[in-house]
């Protein structure tokens, strides 16, 4: 992920955007799977 999305430099802090994007995608997928499971139950 780091090669695709470079880390964001904010002064002395480097935010790893790839990790944050990965977390957001995981949460979105979990919500989607949860909604599908509720609608089929």
Description:
The chain is of the alpha+beta class. The protein has one domain (8-40). 59% of the residues lie in helices and 15% in strands. The protein has one helix and two strands, in the order E-E-H. It has one helix at 17-40, and strands at 8-10, 13-15. Strands 1-2 form a two-stranded antiparallel sheet. A hairpin with a 2-residue loop joins strand 1 (8-10) and strand 2 (13-15). The relative contact order is 0.14.
Counting DSSP H or I runs of 4 or more residues, the number of helices is: 1
Q: How many domain modules?
A: 1
Please tally the β strands and state the result.
2
List SSEs in N-to-C order. EEH
Distance between the termini: 36 Å
Instruction: Tell me, rounded to a whole number, the average pLDDT.
Output: 86
Which segments are poorly predicted (pLDDT under 50) over 5 or more consecutive residues? none
Q: Please tell me what the overall shape is.
A: elongated
| Strand line-up of the largest beta sheet | 1-2
Specify the helix fraction band: 55-70%
Question: Which helices and strands appear, and what pairs or packs with what?
Answer:
Layout: E1 8-10, E2 13-15, H1 17-40
Quick recap of the structure?
The chain contains one helix and two strands; from the N terminus they run ββα. The chain has 41 residues and is an alpha+beta fold.
Q: Could you name the key traits of this structure?
A:
41 residues; alpha+beta; two-stranded antiparallel ribbon; 1 helix; 2 strands; elongated
